[in-house]
Specification:
Distance between the termini: 79 Å
Largest sheet: 5 strands, mixed
Strand order of the largest sheet: 7-8-9-11-10
Low-confidence stretches: 56-68, 222-227, 358-363
Strand content: 5-15%
CATH architecture of the largest domain: Up-down Bundle
Shape: elongated
Radius of gyration: 45 Å
Mean pLDDT: 75
Helix content: 55-70%
Length: about 625
């Protein structure tokens, strides 16, 4: 009955999985195993009931009696394939594919040889295989002698592939494999119990039932069940059951053998054994849960060990962010849960560190939260989320409180660092706004000069030209000469105004880039300038404007104070940085003592607004060099 029930369960559960996951071979393999074992049981019962008494004159088809031979090759082959393909429906890696093909081939050969093997059926002595071919007896015997061990070997290798898959698996896939591993462990345990205690040999088939149930849960409902909790509770139950049995039997049998005079069990000893078991049960339960959690969830550090490791490793992590991450990791190791560290910045709580990262950070309600207080000020919060169905223990509470006490100074430093970074970000934004406002004002001035005064001067020049022509016609040479001088002066004023407008924000910079704009400017200076531009691309408008006006500011300072005879401008891209320098051979100055003026501050603001750094190097009689580095992305 148990064998038939196991076969029916395999077939039904396999059919359910195949119906729900038609694209996966897992359900079809379970269904095939259930159908094959069911047919084997049916043929065996049929043979006992009808074939042996009737002397082969049974009313059912003879082929039904030959299924007895199939089990040796087909079931191990199907089970091996199940292990190879579980739970994804594909081998663990491409190198396991040859084993998949070999398992199918060897199982098929073994089944074919079994069907046509002549002779008596193994489980029905005296009954000859009706499909056997005597002419192939020698061949089929040899083939079966080779194929059956090979199929069993493929079955073992399939189990090894499951172990290899588990070692590589993560997350959901590992949870699925745990379900099958737990069922296989139960099957092995029940098999050993059945072999050791003959009356309990039938419990083996309950282990067989566990395999398809575990596979179905893993494939269909793994997200709704936590296998770690199931294993933990099973370990606790098994240890407690064993403890109760050993204590009771030890007291009753052991002491009974020493004090009994008539060989009969003592009622008093039974009462004593029950009392001893009841007294020791709760401490044993606590120890069993601790051991089970260690087996399932791994070795967890004690509160003292966690606090000691935190104090020891704190000095190695100099950055406050690294220190908070260390806190979260160690606290997670000690509690076995997901730990998050929240830092209070202003009126908001900011997630600063977590024992998990990215999408793995758990959401929803927390199991325990402990505020971190330093000198009466709440600096942040530690939160703990335990695994499903696992409660927060007193040790967890002690560890959370102890860690919150030690984390006060760390969180204070982290809070100061966070506030400093916010101030730096605000300063950067302020610089960018100031520089942007200056550039906007430059463009406005250029536009006003071009559309206003420049156009008026051009119109005045044209009118003066007309007046000069009229004076010449009316024979007024002195007036004509004076007007000609005014026309020339107006033309010079127009050119000067045009150069001024272009210098405010040169169109050449936007059109052709840094090298062209600076090259055009070097032709207008008194001091000779050597320009070197290598490996330059086009950059964002803000970057090019910052470098251009910084170089112009440096050239203006050189013309005012340096008394230089030569200037060199270098522009190049090094990696992902734009590097520039303006060097002169002037009288120089002591950079440590000379007060910095508005020009240098303006250069620092411009370069800082685009994320760069500015360096000034100078010494008396050694000239001066202004250099800068700006992180860039080529446009």
């Amino acid at each position: 009955v148990a064998e038939s029930a196991a076969s029916a369960a395999l077939a039904c559960i396999g059919g359910l999985v195949a119906y729900r996951r038609r694209e996966s071979p897992i359900g079809w393999l379970l269904l095939a195993i259930g159908v094959e074992t069911g047919l084997t049981q049916l043929s065996y019962r049929y043979g006992l009931r009808y074939v042996l008494p009737a002397g082969m004159a049974a009313p059912l088809p003879e082929s039904l009696n030959s299924t007895d031979h199939l089990e040796d090759g087909l079931v191990p082959g199907l089970a091996g394939l199940l292990f190879l393909l579980f739970p994804t429906g594909h081998p663990p890696s491409p190198r396991w594919r040859p084993l998949t093909a070999a398992t199918i081939a060897v199982a098929a050969v073994s089944v074919a040889a079994s069907v046509v093997t002549s002779g008596q059926l193994a489980d029905l002595p005296g009954v000859v295989n009706p499909l056997g071919i005597r002419a192939l007896a020698s061949l089929t015997t040899s083939v079966r002698a080779i194929s059956v061990p090979l199929v069993n070997m493929a079955f073992i290798l399939g189990g090894l592939s499951l172990i290899a898959r588990w070692r590589r698996a993560e997350g959901v896939e590992r949870q699925q494999i745990k379900w099958l591993a737990a069922a296989a462990t139960l099957l092995a345990a029940l098999l050993l119990i059945g072999r050791a205690v003959e009356p309990l040999s039938g419990v083996f088939f309950f282990g067989v039932l566990a395999i398809p149930v575990a596979v179905a849960i893993a494939v269909l409902r793994y997200r709704l069940n936590d296998i770690d909790v199931v294993i933990s509770r099973a370990v606790v139950f098994g240890m407690l059951a064993g403890f109760v049995t050993i204590v009771y039997v030890g007291v009753v049998v052991g002491f009974g053998a020493l004090i009994s005079t008539n060989g009969r069990p003592s009622v008093l000893l039974s009462i004593v054994a029950t009392a001893v078991t009841a007294v020791a049960f709760q401490p044993m339960r606590t120890r069993a849960e601790h051991l089970a959690n260690r087996v399932v969830y791994g070795q967890r550090s004690t509160p003292y060990e966690v606090l000691a490791r935190f104090a020891e490793q704190l000095g190695d992590a100099t950055d406050p962010q690294e220190q908070l991450q260390l806190l979260a990791s160690l606290l997670s190791e000690g509690t076995g849960g997901d730990v998050r560290v929240w830092l209070r910045v202003g009126d908001r709580l900011r997630l600063t560190a977590s024992s998990r990262s990215g999408d793995e950070v758990p959401s929803g309600e927390v199991d325990r939260s402990v505020p971190v207080v330093h000198h009466g000020t709440t600096l942040g919060l530690l939160t703990l989320v335990k695994p499903a169905n696992e409660q927060v223990s007193s040790l967890d509470d002690r560890l959370m409180m102890g860690m919150a006490g030690q984390a006060g100074l760390v969180m204070r430093n982290a809070r100061l660092a966070a506030e400093l970074y916010e101030r730096l970000d605000q300063l950067q934004l302020s610089r960018q706004r100031l520089v942007a406002a200056q550039d906007d004002e430059r463009r406005r001035l250029e536009r006003d000069l071009h559309d206003g005064a420049q156009q008026q001067l051009v119109a005045l020049k044209i009118k003066l030209g007309i007046a000069g022509t009229l004076a010449t016609r009316e024979s007024a040479p002195r007036t004509s000469a004076a007007i000609g001088e005014l026309v020339a002066e107006a033309g010079e004023a127009v050119d000067t105004l045009r150069e001024l407008a272009h210098g405010i924000y040169p169109p050449l910079l936007a059109a052709e880039g840094l090298a062209a704009a600076l090259g055009a400017h070097t032709t207008k200076t008194v001091v000779p300038i050597e320009l070197s531009a290598t490996d330059l691309g086009r950059y964002s408008q803000d970057v090019e404007a910052a470098v251009y006006f910084c170089c112009l500011e440096a050239l203006q300072n050189i013309s005012k104070y340096a008394q230089a005879t030569a200037v060199r401008i270098d522009l190049t891209q090094v990696g992902s940085s734009l590097v520039f320098s303006v060097a002169d051979d002037g009288k120089g100055f002591d950079a440590a003592t000379v007060r910095r003026g508005a020009g240098l501050q303006n250069m620092e603001d411009r370069i800082g607004s685009v994320g760069g750094t500015l360096t000034l190097a100078s010494a008396p009689s050694a000239g001066c060099t202004v250099s800068g580095h700006i992180p860039v992305a080529v446009a």
